[in-house]
Amino acid sequence: MSLPQSLRTSVTPPELELIASQQLIEIIPLIAIEKTAFISGAFGPLQPPRKAQIPLWMAINLKLKKKCHIVAPEWLSVEFLQSRLDEEINEPGFSKLPFRYAEVSKLLLDVQVTFAPDDIQSTDKIRYLLKDLREARQAKSREGLDQINRGELSLSNLCSMEINEIRPFFVHAMGILTHLHRDASAEDQP
Amino acid sequence: MDNDYFSIDAILAENQKIQCKFKQRIPEMGHLGGGSERDILPLSKRQIPIWLAYIIVYSDWADFDIPQPFSNKVRNALRAEPRSVRLSNLVGAGAGWYVLGKTIMDMLGDEQGVEMSEMLITTFKGRLVDVIDQAQHFAVLGSVGGGGGVDSAPQMFREGLDTTERELFVLAQESARRMKKWYEEGSGGAKRVL
């Protein structure tokens, strides 16, 4: 394969960001656009002031041109994230978060910071909460390393970025364990 | 051993020598051990590379001892604290401790093989968490850090890593570095459509 070694083992974060950008998000358009066909589907028509659902990439694009207001998804709020953080700290498993929360939150928060700080409240607090969440989950996945064996490893409720981060060495480590294992019954001597 | 035929690690591991005690007399092969005798006499010991020893042991012409990197002394040290043993010192340059262990394990009988396998696996799992921790820590420091003189215990652990552990270290470090870079870069170039 002509890919460099480091890219063969997993997807890169920018690629995951791109995939996450295809999720639909609600906006309040400021201009009218009729139903337009894109490669991934037809969206619109956008009729202000009615809300519409468009892909995230399009929403960010319009936002940069100041042609819409983005309605924050309900999980991107201080209360929701705080309650999840408490759950994360107090309970052993991983709490349930939207699968691509890391990518979507980064995209939305960055657009807020650069351009229109009006759609999402208290972006700083949200950033801190997200960071704490990420670190708490990382600590838990490190504990999950202890249970690794050559068969399967089940860590439920992990999100796309986190899976991508641990995939290379988890899979490699499991491969090594398979190598080192010796069945008591299997015998390769006559 | 068949599925490792093309594996570089396995080839390097098989180059290691192990002590074999011959059971029969083998004419004209005295040069194998580097000695000056013409024949190999029964009950004489020679150091034979594993790739050769495999066939010799298979055909029951000799027995071999478990080599020094897996001796009882090493086993006890590992049982006490797997992270304090420097695996890279135990085996010569090129071969890895784990790969050598696997190669030897394939030659052992059932009981010893399972015991060896358990030792290898326990050691690996014991050291794994530290390997990953250090890798993620190092992703943060980047190439500028390097531990410094204060950090000698983690540094010694890093130097004592086996080749297989080093591969894991690099993998973890790479993915951690990518994540960090992604989190810190701004809203990205693709968004500038103004």
UniProtKB/TrEMBL annotation, chain A:
Superkingdom of source: Eukaryota
Protein's cellular compartments: Nucleus
Domain DNA replication complex GINS protein PSF2 N-terminal span(s) in chain numbering: 12-71
Domain named GINS subunit: residues: 75-175
InterPro entries found in the cross-reference section: GINS_A, GINS_bundle-like_dom_sf, GINS_Psf2, PSF2_N
Keywords noted in UniProt: DNA replication, Nucleus
Main location: nucleus
Subunit text: Component of the GINS complex.
Record-stated family: Belongs to the GINS2/PSF2 family.
Protein name per Swiss-Prot or TrEMBL: DNA replication complex GINS protein PSF2
Species: Lentinula boryana
Lineage: Eukaryota, Fungi, Dikarya, Basidiomycota, Agaricomycotina
UniProtKB/TrEMBL annotation, chain B:
Key words of the record: DNA replication, Nucleus
Domain (DNA replication complex GINS protein PSF3 N-terminal) ranges: 6-55
Nucleus found in the keyword field: yes
Pfam family, one: Sld5
Entry annotated with the keyword tRNA-binding: no
Database matches in InterPro entries: GINS_A, GINS_bundle-like_dom_sf, GINS_Psf3, GINS_Psf3_sf, PSF3_N
Subcellular location: Nucleus
Domain GINS subunit: 70-183
SUPFAM superfamilies recorded: GINS helical bundle-like, PriA/YqbF domain
Its job: The GINS complex plays an essential role in the initiation of DNA replication.
Subunit structure, interactors included: Component of the GINS complex.
Family: Belongs to the GINS3/PSF3 family.
Record-given protein name: DNA replication complex GINS protein PSF3
Organism, as annotated: Lentinula boryana
